[in-house]
Amino acid sequence: MSAAPHIPVLLRPLLTACAPVRGTWVDGTFGAGGYARGLIEAGAAKVIGIDRDPLAHRMAEEWLPGFHGTIVLREGTFSELDRIAADAGAEQVAGVVLDLGISSMQIDIAERGFSFQKDAPLDMRMSQSGESARDIVNGADEGTLADILYLYGEERASRRIARAIVAARPVDTTLALAEIVARCLPRQKPGEKHPATRTFQALRIAVNDEYGELAQGLEAAERALAPGGLLAVVSFHSVEDRMVKRFLQLRAGRMGQGSRYAPLAEAEAPAFEAVTKKAIEPDAEELASNPRARSAKLRVARRTAAPAGRVSEQEIGMPILNTSRTTGGGRPRR
């Protein structure tokens, strides 16, 4: 079992936007440690890494001792990064970086079940525990499957695909699922994404509750950051980027609330101010060295001294799945 070398996406513009890099940072999506190493090399005094994937912890054992305690790794999810940082001795931190979605090392290990490039069990669990994609594919009712594909994968043929999956059960492997989806959609043209791409994305997001994690992780970052601290988020598709953008707009006081029927309440003091006025995308040099960066977007904001607040999942545009009728798809919303 081996993974391809991990290339951190948009690391160079991230470090430029966050310069000078100082103090203690939290890398909430540690993976192969590329961002953590980059932050230390740029001047951070310490990086607290967080990852729920046991593979990330096993891989780090080989090189982490060479950083002599400047990088520490903790097991968990970034939705609890404020607590994890405090437990590691940092009540407030100078920066938080989140690299959303799936890492190359997870994709490239076929038996993890994230990809349809090779046949493997339908798994997709980042933590390697709990419900798998196979559990959802074979256990959820047709309506719930359709909702997952539409809300989490923006798949317009969600009902047709869900109907075909239910008819073909049991579906146990990645290639079996990919073939079912491909039969439901028009023939793939040269250069187009595989027809099953959106279905696999949707199931992965459901298995790992990625949108719920993001909504809670942004709030946890706001609580953890010291005044002047920086939040840097790299996203890879439109829903993630929309959630990050709306969160930062709301917490910066740049999205009005209320209507002529419901007057505006007294505005909260802004908790963030934008560092990047719009999302930063990879340049030609980065795309040449790392084609997986093509859909990446980076947003950076600076924490103010205002108290931390709350933003609802609806306000930031998070797709809400009706979990009352599914065996999978994430924990119930608060």
TrEMBL record:
Could you tell me the Gene Ontology terms of the biological process aspect for this record? rRNA base methylation
What is the protein name given in its UniProt record?
Ribosomal RNA small subunit methyltransferase H
- Name the top EC class: transferase
Signal peptide positions are none
Pfam families attached to this UniProt entry: Methyltransf_5
**Documented EC number(s):** 2.1.1.199
Q: Per its UniProt record, what HAMAP family does this chain match? A: 16SrRNA_methyltr_H (MF_01007)
